[in-house]
Specification:
The complex is a heterodimer of chains A (about 180) and B (about 180). Chain A has seven helices and no strands. With about 180 residues, chain A is mainly alpha-helical. In chain A, helix 1 packs antiparallel against helix 2, helix 1 packs across helix 4 and helix 3 crosses helix 4. Chain B is mostly helical. Chain B is built from seven helices and no strands. In chain B, about 50% of the residues are buried. The mean pLDDT of chain B is about 90. Classes of the chains: A mainly alpha (about 180), B mainly alpha (about 180). Chains A and B meet through helix 1, helix 3, helix 4, helix 5 and helix 6 of A and helix 1, helix 2, helix 3, helix 4 and helix 5 of B.
């Protein structure tokens, strides 16, 4: 199969970025790159998703950068990144501008507050899933609690907290992986 | 807002890009601490609104940083904040992706992922606490948060956008009947 052009990568990512209301983006990316176009196979998708989740940055952004590089080199990576972020960039600013225009209306403010409360609920579910994944692992739970308390309750700056916790947590994970084989 | 503040915002965002473990949700607490509490560039009320907009619009949740730049310095701020938040993590991912052999590196991928994921979860919990603090933490806000979380947890096929818009409508309805001021 011929490799896709940079333009078709751009438009595919533009489409994914435009339709990605409220999350679930990696599902969309799988549908387009694996199922619809067959540019990437399932095993590669899983391996790249793991790498994208492991490194900092929005997972889905990392994912499309990796696919762009794989399929079309640096130009492909840029095409995917640009196409993917174009709609979200203008959409957030457009929506925020509309909210600014309506700022005098208490009703709109109230509605937006409700959106924020429900969006927190969405994050709560993600937190719960994260905790459940390490429920059998006291070390990982302690690391999670440490980060949450240090940054969220004591208000410590994130940089030193991560610089201390990350090596400790990765060393503990290395020991577990070695032990479990 | 002057040039110095814009530069200072970029200097806040650049390192956060490399600390966004597990995605943009990891840096919400730090953004709130730096930008709302320490430097008071944005009011808690505006931060809550921008958070709501970033969650209701398409795209990754880190577009919150784009909105902060936009609120502080218009289009220039939006573009620079977006670049500051996406470039460092994207370049890091690109470099690691090119340097690593996906199939041989599975073991250290797993170690890093298992080591870093609990930190990402802890930072996300910190973000939830930070946003709940500025949302006032009243009974109605917590109620909507928990209701949204329950719906998303039990019905995985409900679109997240419907749930957060539902939260907005519910809060608006409570305001109409004078339950919320």
């Amino acid at each position: 199969m011929a490799a896709p052009t940079a333009a078709s990568l751009f438009f595919t990512c533009f489409k994914i970025g435009s339709l990605s209301f409220g999350g679930g983006l990696s599902g969309w990316i799988h549908r387009e790159f694996v199922e619809r176009h067959g540019w990437i196979d399932d095993e590669d998708f899983a391996a790249q998703l793991a790498l994208a989740q492991m490194l900092p940055g929005a997972n889905v952004v990392n994912l499309v950068i990796g696919f762009g590089e794989r399929l079309r080199g640096p130009v492909g990576a840029l095409a995917c990144l640009g196409g993917f972020l174009l709609t979200p960039f203008f959409a957030v600013i457009g929506l925020a501008s509309v909210m600014d225009l309506l700022a005098h209306s208490r009703g709109v403010e109230v509605m937006l507050e409700g959106v924020a409360f429900a969006a927190i609920g969405m994050l709560v579910v993600m937190c719960g899933k994260g905790v459940m994944r390490s429920r059998r692992n006291a070390e990982a739970l302690l690391v999670t609690a440490g980060a949450a308390v240090a940054v969220g309750i004591l208000g410590w700056s994130m940089l030193p907290v991560v610089l201390v916790l990350a090596p400790v947590s990765v060393a503990l994970a290395a020991r577990r992986v070695r032990r479990d084989g | 807002m002057d040039e110095d503040d814009l530069l200072a915002l970029i200097l806040v965002l650049l390192p956060l890009s490399l600390l966004s473990i597990g995605g943009g949700t990891a840096i919400i607490a730090e953004l709130e601490g730096e930008i709302v509490r320490a430097r008071q560039w944005i009011t808690p009320h505006d931060f809550l609104q921008l958070f709501a907009v970033s969650r209701a619009a398409p795209g990754p949740g880190v577009m919150l940083a784009t909105l902060i730049g936009w609120k502080m310095a218009g289009w220039e701020g939006a573009v620079l904040a977006t670049l500051a938040l996406f470039l460092p993590s994207s370049l890091l991912f690109y470099g690691v992706y090119r340097a690593s052999n996906q199939h041989r590196a599975k073991r250290w991928h797993r170690v890093l992922r298992e080591g870093l994921a609990p930190i990402g979860t802890g930072l996300m919990i910190a973000g939830v606490l930070a946003i709940m603090r500025i949302s006032g933490g009243g009974g109605v806000s917590i109620g909507i948060t928990l209701a949204a979380a329950a719906v998303l947890y039990h019905y995985s096929n409900v679109p997240p956008l419907a749930v957060i818009l539902g939260g907005g409508c519910l809060h608006y309805g409570l305001w109409l009947v004078d339950f919320v001021v």
